[in-house]
Each structure stands twice: as structure tokens, then as C-alpha cells.
Amino acid sequence: MIGIVLVSHSEALANAAMDLALQMVHGARPPIRIAAGAAGGFGTDATAIASAIDDLAKTDGVLVITDLGSAILSSSLALEIRSSTHQVVISDGPFVEATTAAVVGAAAGGSLADIAADASNALAAKKSQDATGQAASSAEHTDPGSPVVSAEERLINPMGLHTRPASLLVQMAGEFSSDIELTNTSSGRGPVNASSVIGLLSLGACKNDRIRIEASGPDAPQAVNAVKELVLQGFGELS
Amino acid sequence: MSDSLTMDAIQQWLHRFALEITTQADWLTELDSAIGDADHGTNMVRGTGAVVAKLNGGATGTVQELLKAVGMTLVSSVGGASGSLYGTFFLEMGRNSPSGEQLNASELEKALRAGVDGVVARGHAAVGDKTMVDALEPAVTALYQSLANGLRLHDSVAAAAAAATTGRDSTEPLVARKGRASYLGERSAGHIDPGAASSAILVAALAATVGEGTAQ
Description:
Chain A is α/β, with parallel strands linked by helices. In chain A, about 40% of the residues lie in helices and about 20% in strands. Chain B: It comes from Pseudarthrobacter polychromogenes.
């Protein structure tokens, strides 16, 4: 599992972002370190960031997530002064959204490269829901060469595909080797990869929206069935 | 080339820098309250105070080691962008110094150039972005040109300090393109950049130290 370092000017902000993200995790929690504040006030401290990174030397790589400008600057200096040598990526994603994407992705066992990409694109979910409600449709499409198994279901849980169900989906998608993609056929948004919580959120799928589930790979039928079941059970949110 | 900066002179420079920062702390904070978070004076006083404490705690062996220790102290005590940038400045200076116990004029010029290049690389700032670089870049250029023209070290460093002051003042009409002040956009114009101001103090402290003859 990868580790995550949250770099913020404010310890309270970092703790709150971490707690918010951890609400989506129901199994083993990814290792998270906070490097926040400097000299007892607001600020960032490259030496504190370096020791947070060193502290996670036994993980499968570390994603550093930053808030305002100097957090990135201090993090890049931290990479120079740290004593460990494992792989570290500094994310350019927005703090809260990237933290959520990274925590969920790490808990699902994602690789550093995948999670870093997901965190970097974490604004997509917000951008796709602009004031007019117009969709920014995704350009990603399934490889036409691989056989695709698909199903279409209606969302029945009251809140639609919000963060908690999205993170359940990501964790489930991690159990299959097939590529799973979801499209909101009611709004035309997608397809998006089911291994990305941010991608799933960008579908903006509400109750009664129809979701097409497509999978390609060796266990595609099982993967589609599993996702279908999850949708049919309302992600466990039906009272 | 007998002009050189001894370990003593380097420490003298840092003591003077700390003293000047303390004297001008209110002004630095005032500048920062116009376009930033009003803590540059306080942060720099804390950082340079930590450097002085470090120096008083016992001198380190070589120029390299001294400058590295100063850099690390600033990184962990100033906080925020200034800590990382001033830290980078001294770390890079140290990394690009010879391993002896003094810097001759050309070694000093090379080390300062490396320090400024480090700040530029770390902050991705260029001249005109309303940052420390606006004071530091012309200072090292002036130092290089003066030495190349055959001037003595104390005259060359004085030219560098004058260039840093001019550079500092040039930030006043600029619109910030880097750092927290950039969020203010046009409203950042009309104020001297606090980082450029503290950088000019750093170069002035060097000129005063060399001019006083602590350097040989």
C-alpha cells in the first residue's frame, strides 16, 4: 500500500481533510502522515515534510498532497533533504479532492502512478458539474479490440453515486483484473474508469439515473455482475 | 587575488544580517501586510535568530559545512516559502563552495550565483515576477561584472548591494506573478515586495561586512 503525506499551512485543515477522506475507507487504512504548520503558526516546513516522507519509507511509494503555493515549494526541497530513497510524487491536485482520491485509491491497493494521476485529475468531478449542469464528457473510451461485457441498471439509492458508493465501487473494482467502466446514460457523461473515485463522481449520477457497466478482461462477467449487485442493493444505503 | 571571505567574515555577515533584519522587522512586516500574510518580518527575525544561536553554539569546520548548517536552520525555523527559499540559497551556496575555510572573490561569486540559481529553480520565478529574485539576480550580475572589470572585492560587493537596492525598488510598481501575493493580482502593484526587501538587506549586510574590513 502506498503512503500519503498531507502538507498544509494549517494542522487543523490537514487533520480535517484526512478525517473527511478516511470516512470513505472501511477496511485497512493507508498510512498517512501530516506535515502542517511551521514554527508554531501557519506555514510549511521542508524538514517536517522530509521526516514525514522518511517515516513512510516502508510503503510502496508516497504521494505528497499540498495546499497553497509554498507547500509545493517546501515539498520539493524536502525531496532533496530527506534521507530515504523510495519513490515520492508531489501531487498537483486540489487538497481536499486529491486527499479523498488518494486515500480511497491507496486503501484499494492502487499503484502510486495510478493514484497520482487520479489525484491530479481530482478537479474533474467539480468541473463536470458547472452551474448549468452541463456535462463535460469524457474522451476516454474502452479499447475496441477487447470483448466487452455490459449491463445497464438504474440507481435506486437516494443520494445517487456520491463519494461513499463511489469509494465502495473503487474498492470492488480493485478485486477484479478486468477493466471496468461506467457511463451515466441518462446524462451522457462518461465512460469513466471504475478504479477512479474522482472519475465516478464526475458522472454526477443521481437517483434514477441509468448507469451502463462495461468490463473487458478475463473476469469481465463476474466484474459486471458484482457492480450490478452493488447498484441493485443501493450500495447498502437502503433502509 | 588576495581578496577573500574568511569563516569569521561569513559569520560576521550572518550576524549583521540578523541584526539588520531585527532592526527592520516592522518595515518588512508592514510590506508583507500590504500584499501578503503580514509575517515576513517576524519569520525572518525568528530564522536569523536561530542562525545566530547556531553560530554561537559552536563554529562549524568548513565554509561548506557552515553554509549548509545555516541553510538547514533557516528551512526549519523561518517557515513557509521564505524558509525554503533562503534555505535553498544557503544550501546551494554551500554545495558550490570549495571545501576550505575561506572563499576568494571568484569562489564567493560562484557560490552566490549558485545560491540565486537555486532560488530561481525552486520558486520558478524570474526577474519581474515581484520576488526575492528581483533583488538577488541583479546583485550577482553586478558582482560578476565588477570582478570581471578588475574591481576589488569590497567595491564589487558594494556594487552588488546597490544593484540589490535598485532591484528591490523596481518591485514596487510590479504586479506579483508568484507566491501568495499573486492572488491579489493588480492590487499587488504599488508595494515593494517584502522578499526583495529582505534579500537587499542580505546583500547590504555582505557589503558592510566586507567594507568594514573583516574580510582580508
